[in-house]
Protein backbone atom coordinates (compact mmCIF):
# COMPACT_ATOMS: atom_id res chain seq x y z
CA UNK A 1 0.00 0.00 0.00
CA UNK A 2 2.87 2.40 0.77
CA UNK A 3 4.21 2.05 -2.77
CA UNK A 4 0.77 2.88 -4.18
CA UNK A 5 0.58 5.97 -1.98
CA UNK A 6 4.07 6.95 -3.11
CA UNK A 7 3.17 6.51 -6.78
CA UNK A 8 0.06 8.66 -6.29
CA UNK A 9 2.16 11.27 -4.49
CA UNK A 10 4.48 11.32 -7.50
CA UNK A 11 1.57 11.79 -9.87
CA UNK A 12 0.30 14.73 -7.83
CA UNK A 13 3.82 16.15 -7.90
CA UNK A 14 3.68 16.05 -11.69
CA UNK A 15 0.31 17.79 -11.47
CA UNK A 16 1.55 20.67 -9.36
CA UNK A 17 4.77 21.07 -11.31
CA UNK A 18 2.86 21.36 -14.58
CA UNK A 19 0.23 23.47 -12.83
CA UNK A 20 2.88 26.08 -12.02
CA UNK A 21 3.09 26.92 -15.71
CA UNK A 22 -0.67 27.49 -15.90
CA UNK A 23 -0.78 29.76 -12.81
CA UNK A 24 1.22 32.38 -14.75
CA UNK A 25 3.08 33.46 -11.64
CA UNK A 26 0.10 32.73 -9.38
CA UNK A 27 -1.99 35.38 -11.13
CA UNK A 28 -4.71 33.00 -12.33
CA UNK A 29 -6.97 31.95 -9.44
CA UNK A 30 -8.26 28.55 -10.58
CA UNK A 31 -4.92 27.12 -11.73
CA UNK A 32 -3.35 28.51 -8.55
CA UNK A 33 -5.90 26.80 -6.29
CA UNK A 34 -5.57 23.51 -8.18
CA UNK A 35 -1.77 23.69 -8.08
CA UNK A 36 -1.66 24.38 -4.35
CA UNK A 37 -4.18 21.57 -3.73
CA UNK A 38 -2.00 19.17 -5.73
CA UNK A 39 1.02 20.26 -3.66
CA UNK A 40 -0.79 19.53 -0.42
CA UNK A 41 -2.10 16.16 -1.58
CA UNK A 42 1.34 15.18 -2.87
CA UNK A 43 3.06 16.00 0.43
CA UNK A 44 0.36 14.28 2.50
CA UNK A 45 0.62 11.12 0.42
CA UNK A 46 4.41 11.20 0.67
CA UNK A 47 4.09 11.58 4.43
CA UNK A 48 1.81 8.56 4.61
CA UNK A 49 4.14 6.49 2.42
CA UNK A 50 7.22 7.18 4.55
CA UNK A 51 5.56 5.60 7.56
CA UNK A 52 6.51 2.22 6.05
CA UNK A 53 9.23 3.06 3.51
CA UNK A 54 12.76 4.34 4.04
CA UNK A 55 12.71 8.14 3.83
CA UNK A 56 15.62 8.40 1.40
CA UNK A 57 14.13 5.83 -0.93
CA UNK A 58 10.65 7.34 -0.81
CA UNK A 59 11.90 10.86 -1.41
CA UNK A 60 14.11 9.81 -4.33
CA UNK A 61 11.29 7.82 -5.94
CA UNK A 62 8.81 10.68 -5.37
CA UNK A 63 11.06 13.25 -6.98
CA UNK A 64 12.02 10.82 -9.74
CA UNK A 65 8.40 10.20 -10.68
CA UNK A 66 7.79 13.93 -10.63
CA UNK A 67 10.86 14.69 -12.70
CA UNK A 68 10.22 12.10 -15.38
CA UNK A 69 6.52 12.92 -15.64
CA UNK A 70 7.15 16.65 -15.77
CA UNK A 71 9.78 16.32 -18.48
CA UNK A 72 7.51 14.09 -20.57
CA UNK A 73 4.53 16.40 -20.17
CA UNK A 74 6.75 19.39 -20.92
CA UNK A 75 7.58 17.73 -24.22
CA UNK A 76 3.95 16.91 -24.96
CA UNK A 77 2.22 20.06 -23.70
CA UNK A 78 4.81 22.79 -24.18
CA UNK A 79 6.81 21.54 -27.18
CA UNK A 80 10.01 21.31 -25.16
CA UNK A 81 12.91 19.78 -27.09
CA UNK A 82 13.23 16.03 -27.51
CA UNK A 83 16.88 15.07 -27.73
CA UNK A 84 18.73 11.81 -27.31
CA UNK A 85 20.48 13.20 -24.24
CA UNK A 86 17.19 14.19 -22.57
CA UNK A 87 15.66 10.79 -23.30
CA UNK A 88 18.80 9.04 -22.06
CA UNK A 89 18.69 11.01 -18.83
CA UNK A 90 15.02 10.10 -18.35
CA UNK A 91 15.97 6.45 -18.84
CA UNK A 92 18.68 6.80 -16.18
CA UNK A 93 16.19 8.29 -13.71
CA UNK A 94 13.69 5.50 -14.38
CA UNK A 95 16.45 2.93 -13.90
CA UNK A 96 17.37 4.55 -10.59
CA UNK A 97 13.73 4.55 -9.43
CA UNK A 98 13.41 0.86 -10.28
CA UNK A 99 16.67 0.09 -8.50
CA UNK A 100 15.53 1.87 -5.35
CA UNK A 101 12.18 0.09 -5.46
CA UNK A 102 13.84 -3.32 -5.61
CA UNK A 103 16.46 -2.42 -3.00
CA UNK A 104 13.89 -1.24 -0.43
UniProtKB/TrEMBL annotation:
Compartment annotation: Cell membrane
Transmembrane helix listed as a keyword: yes
This protein's UniProt keywords: Cell membrane, Membrane, Transmembrane, Transmembrane helix, Transport
Pfam families in the record: Multi_Drug_Res
Segments passing through the bilayer: 33-50, 57-78, 84-103
Membrane topology category: Multi-pass membrane protein
Xref: NCBIfam families: PRK11431.1
This protein's name: Guanidinium exporter
Organism listed in the record: Mycoplana rhizolycopersici
Gene: sugE
Amino acid sequence: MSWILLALAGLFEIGWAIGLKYTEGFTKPLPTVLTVAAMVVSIVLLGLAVRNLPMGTAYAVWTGIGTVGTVILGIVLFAEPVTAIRLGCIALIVTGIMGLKFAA
